[in-house]
């Protein structure tokens, strides 16, 4: 694989052609915050936490979908980026209902971790608290839209890895919702295989197993990444 | 049809047109139809027939003539006498006086009720005199549903020239020479875009015509599609030849049923004549065009969302790069141009890039179509050379602000643009100067506001639009527009604080810089530009707040 020189945060690196900035950063232990990215499923560049500055390009680009190019000078830790990461985190917390103390995912939540990482002390924007549905119709799992941050990992893992296409998206703007089939109760789904992949990759307490109790929800997100990696090996 | 047939058709159509002493066009653009022009057309045709004049006078429906709020409009050629607000009751008088006695009806002349002097030849009125029509040159004169009407005015001649006298590189070179920039809003150089698509090697490439015009108050693309659909088709075919695409899609929003109907008819007619389809004009170039109808999402005007929509997916944008020129429709290199851009192609090929490039300003060549709307005497469709001042557009062409009120602001670029205050009325309208004023050229919507407009409310209106139209994919646009809308509503209701203004400013810059697509990146523009020029109005709203300044209500 041919190598190209890039400069990330002042470090001169030789990296493989065709890799994303995120891949390159993670390989070189440069921390990039992400939320919608998940190893093994396709990237959509939606959460905007992984934005980086590239010299000569007048807009911020997401590290997860932007491929490195030769001689790029990339900055990942500027004051502006840190400020924007914090606002994004605050907006995610303000958008629906993320009161950790009463959330089943407390202690096992990527959004909660993100809050700590960006040093969010409080949310400066008004909480919207929309009244969202809690779909408990599935025999084993629950979809609590109040905790959903629209990373759409569930939608992608269901179509890309499981191939079931149970999850979709409806509405737009802040009224956007993840739906099962054509917006019918999850328990009535004719496509869901109950494979649990969506539950495991969900970063928050939006998708969870009925067997879990508050504070003890354990997810195994790595099972999906490992599965994808193993499938690739067999090919 | 081969090359000779094209010339013969033009000649035959010319002979047929010359049989008539006069040609009367009745505007059947969407605006005039809504004020009853179809009944006027029918009545006029009956009246001419009943007087036995059908051999001398040709009565045809045409596309938009320009002064839309004066409709229904009737134009008599070759005198170029135009009548406004024509009703069925006026028809007998028009036929008797204008067409038989050859005396114009003074009281019915265009602008007779609003200008001190109305002109018998409408072209002498400043409304037309100051315009420079290239895209719209045939719009309002030809019957958009008759292909011969277009052919007789050198229609498809540019396609013929491109196919038989020019190489692909020549065509691209000519477009580059013209310095034409994309008319959809961003203003990317069209020639460079074509060249990029041309350079990618692929078994299949596509050309897409973006007719998903969604800005409130904008009707440029609609009028071009309705008034001269063949011009757009010809532009698409030339683009297809230049970049090496054999298939084109016209993405037209579902709210434009007339544009869809006429474009469909144009495709059918062009196919029948061999101007579309296999081996166009006997060359070895083949090109097909299909229509795709938008289902009412503003964001589908964004190119990657538009492509997703054509593919049958949910219309959501994706990050660029890769650009559609490399990875476009079904993963193939795709050229996406706006309707107006494609409608500018044929004249550039016919008359040369240098001719086009000489019009306008050094950085913004050519002409731009604007849809004048809002508090302005003559709202309608105009085309002016780049670099004309806003003052000339608003006051000379548009006739100024009605009701003795004062001009306050010109909003360009719709929900992605900004508000330009009267201090900057003498700004030359081109891509760069509008950006320096915190607005954008946009697709050409120009909404005029008078001193009764509350600019905070204006900002709130556009923010509400963006909030509703956000696809919900990325966090800044989805949540940021909602937060900004709520804060603006709070300020409008008189509950705002200075801290709210600070938050608005912070959010606006954040959403602008970190959103995924153009919708989010430009959504804060109306807010930012009103904060820049009308901050006193924000502060006035805050003064209404009885609470202590700085105390948050959140």
How is the secondary structure organized here?
The complex is a heterodimer of chains A (235) and B (554).
Chain A: E1 3-8, E2 11-16, H1 21-27, E3 51-54, E4 61-62, E5 73-75, H2 79-95, H3 110-117, E6 134-135, E7 141-144, H4 153-162, E8 167-170, E9 177-180, H5 197-201, E10 207-209, H6 222-234
Parallel strand pairs in A: 1-5
Antiparallel strand pairs in A: 1-2, 3-4, 3-5, 6-7, 7-10, 8-9
Chain B: H1 3-18, E1 22-27, H2 30-34, H3 37-50, E2 57-62, E3 74-77, E4 81-83, H4 91-100, H5 126-129, H6 147-151, H7 157-165, H8 168-178, H9 190-199, E5 206-211, H10 220-227, H11 229-243, E6 247-253, H12 257-272, E7 288-294, H13 303-310, E8 334-338, H14 339-343, H15 345-351, H16 353-357, E9 367-374, E10 380-385, H17 390-397, E11 407-412, E12 418-421, H18 431-436, E13 445-450, H19 455-469, H20 475-492, H21 498-514, H22 518-522, H23 525-533, H24 535-543
Structure report:
The complex is a heterodimer of chains A (235) and B (554). Chain A has 235 residues and is α+β, with helices and mostly antiparallel strands. The longest helix of chain A is centred in the middle third of the chain and has 17 residues, at 79-95. In chain A, a hairpin with a 2-residue loop joins strand 1 and strand 2 (11-16). Chain A has helices at residues 21-27, 79-95, 110-117, 153-162, 197-201, 222-234; strands at residues 3-8, 11-16, 51-54, 61-62, 73-75, 134-135, 141-144, 167-170, 177-180, 207-209. Chain A is globular, with a radius of gyration of 19 Å. Chain A has six helices and ten strands. Chain B folds into four domains: 20-125, Glutaredoxin (3-Layer(aba) Sandwich); 147-356, Rossmann fold (3-Layer(aba) Sandwich), CATH 3.40.50; 366-453, Ubiquitin-like (UB roll) (Roll); 456-543, NADH-ubiquinone oxidoreductase 51kDa subunit, iron-sulphur binding domain (de novo design (two linked rop proteins), Up-down Bundle), CATH 1.20.1440.230. Helix content of chain B is 42%, strand content 13%. In chain B, helix 8 (168-178) crosses helix 11 (229-243), helix 10 (220-227) crosses helix 11 (229-243) and helix 19 (455-469) packs antiparallel against helix 23. The chains are: A alpha+beta (235), B alpha/beta (554). The interface between A and B is medium-sized, with 35 and 33 residues.
